[in-house]
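Rotation project, supervised by the postdoc (A.L.). Task for the rotation student: set up a whole-complex structure prediction and record inputs and outputs verbatim in this book. Inputs entered:
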Amino acid sequence: MKVFVQVTDQEIPDVLPTEIFSPESSHGGEVVFRGLVRNVNHGRQVSALSYDSFVPLAEATLREIAAEAGSRWGEELCFAVIHRTGRLEIGEAAVVVAVSSKHRQEAFAACEYMIAELKMRAPIWKKEHYFDGESEWLQGHALCGHDRAHGHVHGHSHDHTHAPSTGQTRAGESYA
Amino acid sequence: MMTIRLFGAFRNLQSEPEITIDPQGASTVGELRTLLAAKFAGASFDAVSLLSKSAIANDREVLSDASPLSDRLALLPPVSGG
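Outputs recorded:
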């Protein structure tokens, strides 16, 4: 399984170079998801976004998610996952997830899993800038401690499900 | 002294990206939470509430409250990437 992950302040290229993402010759499909900065959120006009990240743990988490996807949909899959940091303008790509596989179903499923789990688990934060000059860090999904040797251990008490799950949307975070 | 790196909304606490804190005998992540709650009590936003929803991690993993402290940790509020 080939996995490339990167959290970077550099612009993500429109076409990923082959040293970052190159499907195997046995692969019949590649799926590329690009997450773009949009100009509205919850009805409020957004002028730009800024992303913050704890890069070493974010990249380790992305590798972990890719490994989970590989164990579910095939160890021969190829992955490239790149997430931006810093200030991004409307229309810029904030995240790209590229997956290739022998058949399309595995690539679609693994790509969806990667982006869904990234949003829940990668230590990355989004700040919205508005046209009125205000800005705001968005509320998000709480992280919790995992103990790989014993399943998982919560650092503090709350309810939610854990990956690797069924691939379905997780139960809601339940902080009061 | 130990260093706690700040991310996301915790960056509103101060201009510097990390805080230095005297562990005062604290030896676990759970005990560090108590110290941080006291330190954040006078913040300009509800940092104590945000702390209760936040994880504490090293470069490799999110830590449980029973984990021992190390010199350099990170305070991670709920995440919103993608």
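Student's summary: Chain A touches chain B through 40 residues (CB under 8 Å).
Supervisor addendum: Chain A has one domain: 2-139.
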